[in-house]
Amino acid sequence: MLCYCWNIRKGPAASGDLKKVVGAIDGSVTFPLNSIPHVGSIVWIFNTTLVTYEPPQNGSSATFIVSQTHKKGRVSFPNDEYTLKLSKLEKSDSGIYRAEIHSSHQSSPIRSQKFVLNVYEHLSKPKVTIGLQNKMNGTCMANLTCSMEQQGEDVTYSWESKEKAENESQEGAIFPISWSLGKRNMTFICIARNPISRSFSDPISSWKLCEEVIEEKKGTEIHQVIPNICSHSGGNTLYDTISYTNKRTPEEDTVNTLYTIAQVPKQVEKSHKIPTTLDTAGLFPHETII
Asked: What does UniProt give as the signal peptide span (predicted)?
């Protein structure tokens, strides 16, 4: 059982002074009242009369009558004091509670005290949505948005990002990030809070988020075409390839790729024999395309 009280002041409270109380569903709260001499009864009102309490007098025990039947069994006065305790809280218990204190010598209330109760749910794990903005030139930029499936009341969001042993924080549901290839991995966590609980999202890794940028920078295999001279008929153009690895794709560096076309003259085909000594400079015409 949980009880949360805000701004509870000691000593008599002036009439109409508002105190804030918060509680969790299925928990409990107390509405504290200080002892006042010559109190004949205290009437607690929540929309209508909730409970009438009569403190112990002349050796007799305290008595109270619960008027709202759906709250019977959930209302009590611990230690026979003026403080009202409400257990097994429901969302519908939120609202204004007023205590009217009556003297044993007169029927009209001599003072009153107001409380505002807010009952909250415990937060579930927040959800993170990734809005990709850009992935190019070794950098990825994105917006991370934190939200709850059931929004609830008075929920606030913040972010924690961790690199090495350093932590940074930022308020708000949206967290813009920019990560470049070569930086250390970072983790991002959303924290959702309400007055009675807080919850954490699963951590998000910058390496995982930007894995496409990492893939773009991996080396790709390209090929260069060179001639392979052999005795085939038809004067067809013959090609062979040598493979090597370069980080840039052919589209990125086409100006440095050389293509050589070699053609076998028809006179070689007719002789059906390749000469032992071949004057390639005079026999084979070459054309270079850049």
From this structure: none
